[in-house]
Design a protein that fits this description.
Largest sheet: 9 strands, mixed
Strand order of the largest sheet: 5-4-1-8-9-10-11-12-13
Radius of gyration: 19 Å
Distance between the termini: 21 Å
Number of domains: 1
Number of strands: 13
Order of helices and strands: EEEHEHEEEEHEHEHHEEEHHHH
CATH superfamily: Ribokinase
Helix content: 25-40%
Number of helices: 10
Length: 324
């Protein structure tokens, strides 16, 4: 059984601002904001929510079907994921488009200002679960993408009875309230960060309890404070994994989700699954770029033990499938 990963594939243009944004924004002038920040570095990295999640699933040796659109500038990106073991048969390459691009600047306290150019992602609705081997999909994740495509994928998962994780994130402002409610109430799992869950509540009018009543499991990430998992009337407070250093936060959330998916696919308890997500995210925090980190499952298991102590599930984690 495999995981279907939908969402964006993009090139990330990551910039560093050597100060704090807050010191250069006038709150009383926010209605006519016009600012420019001189950055001191920039890198072009492979990214996008679907690309990042698929990359991390490959490191975890979890089979994944990638369903995303790219442009004429992405053959090396596709090939790199394929070499890692990602099933790219669901990737649609458009010869007359450029791949979506994410422009983000991070200040000295890890606040971020970002812009996203849709490019080929705007054609994501041309991909369909019905054209895939959907009976082999154990769970899908619907992550930020072209809004119409996200609505389509929710409906297809309903129609084809594919369990899915709903991760609307950056597209909450673009999605209609009724679409967000339908995506949430049909999901097996809803994953958002603490700011995004407030955006969802504000956009839909749903309360915390109403959201929990509509979806089987709600996971809220809280950055350096860890994450919260609500499921079956229980609450699990997952402590954060401590990085050796913090280089760049971009992509850490996608890595966390890959760890969560791996735990779900292996049937681990939520305490272990949440911690696995946190450890997976740490590797991204410690590197510049969302897909430059690497590890074996044995190395990740040892990191888990160092941070949280041992658990019997780690023996299965190291031994299942292939491991070098």
């Amino acid at each position: 059984m495999t995981v279907a990963v939908t969402g964006s594939m993009a090139f990330d243009y990551i910039m560093s601002f050597p100060d704090e944004f807050a010191g250069h924004i006038l709150p009383d002038q926010i209605a006519k904001l016009s600012v420019s920040f001189l950055v001191d570095s920039m890198r072009r990295e492979r990214g996008g929510t679907a690309g990042n999640i698929a990359y991390n699933l490959a490191l975890l040796d979890q089979p994944a079907l990638l369903m995303a659109t790219v442009g004429q500038d992405a053959p090396e990106y596709i090939a790199g994921l394929q070499v890692r073991g990602v099933d790219i048969s669901g990737v649609l390459q458009l010869p007359n488009e450029f791949t979506a691009s994410f422009f983000v600047s991070t200040d000295q306290v890890n606040n971020q200002i970002a812009l996203f150019y849709t490019g080929a992602m705007a054609r994501a609705g041309r991909i369909s679960f019905a054209d895939q081997d959907y009976q082999n999909i154990k769970i899908a994740i619907i992550s930020p993408n072209d809004p119409w495509a996200m609505v389509k994928y929710v409906q297809e998962c309903h129609d084809l009875r594919i369990p899915y994780i709903y991760y609307p994130s950056q597209q909450i402002p673009r999605l209609e309230p009724e679409d967000l409610i339908k995506g949430t109430e049909g999901a097996k799992i809803l994953i958002l960060n603490d700011y995004e869950i407030e955006m969802l509540k504000n956009k839909t009018g749903l309360s915390d309890e109403e959201i929990k009543n509509k979806v089987e499991t709600v996971i809220i990430t809280q950055g350096e404070e860890g994450s919260l998992i609500y499921t079956g009337g229980q609450e699990f407070d997952i402590p954060p994994a401590t990085p050796i250093r913090i280089a760049e936060p971009t992509g850490a959330g996608d890595a966390y989700r890959a760890g969560i998916i791996c735990g779900i696919m292996r049937g681990y308890p939520w305490e272990v699954t949440g911690r696995l997500g946190s450890v997976t995210a740490v590797y991204v925090l410690e590197q510049h770029g969302t897909q430059r980190h690497a590890y074996t499952r044995r190395q990740l298991a040892n990191r888990y033990r160092e941070i949280y102590g041992d658990t019997k599930e780690l023996e299965d984690f190291v031994s299942y499938g292939k491991e070098e």
